[in-house]
TrEMBL record:
Keywords assigned by UniProt, alphabetized: Hydrolase, Metal-binding, Zinc
Top-level lineage group: Bacteria
Family, per entry: Belongs to the creatininase superfamily.
Gene3D superfamilies (UniProt xref): Creatininase
Species for this entry: Streptomyces lunalinharesii
UniProt name for this protein: Creatininase
Needed co-factor(s): Zn(2+)
Pfam families reported in the protein's UniProt record: Creatininase (PF02633)
Amino acid sequence: MTPRSAGPHLCDLSSAEVLTATAGRTVVWPVGSVEQHGPHLPLSVDTLLADAFARQIAHELNALTLPVQSIAARSLPQSGGGLAFPGTIHVRGGSLLAFLEDALESLCALPWHRLLIVNGHFENEPFLFEALDEVGRRPVAAGKEFLALSWWSLVDTDWLAGRVPLFPGWHAEHAGLTETSLMLYLRPDLVSAARPDHADPPRPGVYLHPVDVDRTTNQGVLSSTSNATAALGKDLFRHVVAAAVALVSEGNGLLREETS
Ligand SMILES: [Zn+2]
């Protein structure tokens, strides 16, 4: 597996080509963020990872890719360090939801059959799912399938337990062991030598205000990074891509059978 191999980009097609080229196909749309990821990783982690997963999945499914959407939902203190750290750029939830609905409705004008959204940013998930649920009810989406997933949702619990024994929960993996490992595999040129650990990861599903970011994080890291390796990143990348391809190929028994 070559991690940066790509399926064809939908936007590289001409207007004269696009109807024929997309008819009945699968389109993969990566969505990430511009968000602080500690002192050792760039702001682009969620965007780069979503794009890398999407390109590889599209390659294996003979699908088309859309350009990655990088500016998205707000970073929150218990799952991303929040807005206390410079460089985190976002839009408010209402704006994101309206953007996603408009973009999805416009995209539905093309004759593709299935859209797969690959998400790389924890806080995007409810907005993506709501937008798809809304647009999926509209006439323009008739006959189309939507799948959306956050890449970490495809990681098997037992598989992970064998590799990350003290797993803190995905909300706290922000800038942690798994994202650092994936970046060491995919873009080591963007990873610096610092490996901060935070001994007391926040609980999932809890919001606090005011919050002391120096207690909630260690320099923006919510859990640990010190055992991150490119080898773990490679295994994780392959694991997620295989699960995504299986999910799309088999429908996992969840998608409704075509009746007409
Ligand atoms: Zn991230």
